[in-house]
Amino acid sequence: MEEIIKILKKRKWTIGVMESCTGGAVTNWITNIPGASDVFKCGLVTYSDEAKIKAGVDEKIIKKFGVYSMETAEEMAKKIEGEVGVGVTGNLNFPGEVFVAVRINKKVESIKLKVESKNEDKIGGGESGVDIVKFFIVINFLCSCRDAIYGVSTTIIQSHVDGIVVIKNNQSKFIFII
Fold it and tell me: Which of 4, 123, 157, 175 is deepest in the core (most CB within 10 A)?
């Protein structure tokens, strides 16, 4: 995540997070990084449907697709302030599903993640739901910005939930430890 903070600073971009099931853990993770205050715009915990709607999520999306859906996560990412928006909704109870969306300007990428840990601590270690969410956010951001960051097309050749990502382009390999 430190690398993302550097990239955001360089581009003069800000990031915002609207999260539900993670209860503020993603915001906490970002704001614990030195320098985050230069780029962190807003963090909202919208645990209830009403809170999501009040924050700008279209009620029709929630009614049509459900609060635990890719569409709701995407809407959350679109409505939060910042050039980069993150939306997280779902159910962290084992076995659960978490929907994560990352928006860079107007482009939104999203994924459904399976929670395969019985860890009840939302900020816990190992492969808890929040750890997987954090991992996806970092990987998605790096891939979405790859051409802008490196000036050449890059490909993820190896990734692990333990936080090591290997990205390769035609000139070199980059290893990120998250």
Answer: 4
